[in-house]
Amino acid sequence: MKIFIAFIIVIIANISFAEKFTPYYASIKFSEVNVRKGPNSRYPISWVYKKKGEPLEIIAQFEQWYRIRDITGDEGWVKSIMFSKKRGGIIIQPNNKNKSKNNNKSFAKLYRKPDESSKVFASIESSKRVFIKQCKKQWCQIETNKTIGWIEKKYLWGTYTNEEFKK
After folding, report:
1. Which end of the chain, N or C, is less surrounded by CB atoms within 10 Å?
2. Are residues 82 and 95 in the same domain?
3. Confidence of residue 15 (pLDDT cuts 50, 70, 90)
4. CA 154, CA 92: separation in Å to the nearest integer?
5. CA triplet 9, 12, 14: central angle to 5 degrees?
6. What Rg value do the Cα atoms of the chain yield, rounded?
């Protein structure tokens, strides 16, 4: 009997470990979203996002609440209904080699196709919010101000290095 109980405990432990949460990126659905200190509306509000489409990383879940992390590394809890299925991203600069000589701002190149030999037809300033339409190995197709093009993943916060998807 003791062996049977030990066996059941091992199985239950394995099942609970198999249900680990897989982090993913999403964007907020509304123009005002409260971020709380804990997973319940009784917890105090830590800060408020005031921009629809802001991309966030969802790193954990408790019932109907998501633990989120933003681009600065700040973490908090947001109710799950506050998220959109649209994928958002933020243009970043992993280094400073694409700085404009006139105003010290950083820009990323937007290509017609997912290939460095493709035509560059626009530049996007770092910290610009964009929508991510799809991602391949090293490239993502993005949309901003009704302009669609391809950007190297290293210039985009809101997708994982090896993540691939198509909408």
Report:
1. N
2. no
3. very low
4. 8
5. 110
6. 20
The CATH number of the domain holding residue 131 is 2.30.30.40
Q: How many domains does the chain have?
A: 2
State the pLDDT at residue 68.
Answer: 98
Q: Which residues pair with 25 in a beta bridge?
A: 57
Cα(88)–Cα(27) distance, integer angstroms: 5
- Domain for residue 31, yes or no? yes
- Tell me how far apart the alpha carbons of residues 119 and 6 are, in angstroms, rounded to a whole number: 64
- Its sign, for the CA torsion 107, 140, 153, 69, is positive
Q: Is residue 5 part of a domain?
A: no
**pTM of the prediction?**
0.81
Q: Two tokens at 112? A: 């017609």
Residue 11: inside a domain: no
List the beta bridge partners of residue 47: 35
Q: Which token pair is 166?
A: 């198509």
Residues 79 and 127 in one domain: no
**In the block, which residue shows the tokens 């799950």?**
80
- Residues of the domain holding 99: 89-166
Instruction: Let me know if residue 69 belongs to a domain.
Output: yes
